[in-house]
Design goal:
Blueprint: E1 6-12, H1 19-29, E2 35-41, H2 48-58, E3 62-66, H3 73-83, E4 88-91, H4 103-109, E5 115-120, H5 127-144, E6 156-159, H6 176-182, E7 187-192, H7 206-226, E8 234-236, E9 241-243, H8 247-250
Parallel strand pairs: 1-2, 1-4, 2-3, 5-7
Antiparallel strand pairs: 4-6, 5-6, 8-9
Helix pairs in contact: 5-7
Magnesium ion (MG) is lined by residues 93, 95, 97, 197, 202.
């Protein structure tokens, strides 16, 4: 198989009833692109892995990885990033709430941007979830000085180079745009479609998501405050590497 231009990375935990339709939809939506589909089973205890294996037999573009136990969405995405070979990497929910038909437009925007974040318009979740998500986004942006409208939307596109050498911690997938901006990435946001979950159930209870998400903000803030961008002040000497800090940073 030739090296793909695009890698879809899809975290899956207990999504057995969604696998077949998901694979059909991404296959159709991305038929015109040279793509691979990396489906990461995050330690499912139902038939997700069997379903994935079955799907992979019918489509060479599918690559499967699985964890022996559940590690969480960030870990599943990080494993997918590690496996991805395309210059463009797009993350997508495994429950069909994101519409794969939106993927080509996001990929096209990577010509001008390093990261493209989906913003779910007409969001098809319960009102409680929509409100708690709004509060959490507002708090995150207030604390980090950012303006990411809908970081809970998994549908995002990245130039792969920005995903390399990232240490990701549990829950960190929500801060990818902010962390990449900190490193100098150009980030934009575009509206995307959203659909109700058709089978299986959500992994994020409203309260749990809020409390955990709010605590994580302080870690990101600490990183922003203490980020060391040494490359901008590094000077190479003839033999070996010697770094000279600028006057400003050494004072
Ligand atoms: N997911 C995962 N591991 C987890 C929790 C979630 O791989 O521990 C996956 C899940 O299967 C889905 C995506 O992450 O594909 C988003 O989860 P979910 O749909 O439950 O989130 P929601 O849409 O309710 O915010
Ligand atoms: Mg969902």
């Amino acid at each position: 198989m030739q090296t793909p231009d695009l890698s879809l990375v899809i975290p899956m935990h207990n999504e057995e009833q969604n696998v077949q339709l998901l694979v059909e939809e991404i296959g159709t939506a991305l038929a015109g692109l040279c793509a691979e589909f990396i489906l990461v089973d995050d330690g499912s205890t139902d038939g997700t892995l069997d379903q994935l294996r079955q799907a992979a037999r019918g489509d060479q573009r599918i690559r499967i990885a699985h964890f022996r136990r559940n590690l969480g969405q960030t870990a599943a995405m990080a494993a997918g990033f590690h496996l991805a070979r395309g210059e463009a990497v797009v993350t997508l929910d495994g429950d069909l709430q994101n519409d794969p038909a939106d993927v080509p437009a996001l990929v096209a925007l990577l010509k001008e941007w390093d990261v493209v974040c989906g913003v779910r318009v007409n969001r098809r979740d319960t009102w409680l979830k929509r409100i708690s998500s709004k509060i959490a986004n507002g708090f995150r942006n207030w604390a980090t000085g950012d303006d990411i409208v809908d970081t809970g939307c998994t549908l995002k596109a990245f130039r792969r180079q920005w995903l390399q050498n990232l240490d990701l911690y549990r829950g960190m997938h929500r801060f990818l745009p902010t962390l990449l901006k900190m490193r100098g990435a150009r980030v934009t946001q575009v509206p995307v479609r959203h659909r109700p979950r058709r089978a299986g159930k959500t992994h994020y209870g409203t309260w749990g998501r809020m409390v955990k998400g709010l605590g994580d903000v302080w870690a990101v803030r600490w990183m922003q405050r203490n980020y060391v961008d040494y490359a901008t002040v590094l000077e190479l000497e003839e033999s070996g590497v010697r770094s000279q800090e600028s006057e400003a940073s050494s004072q």
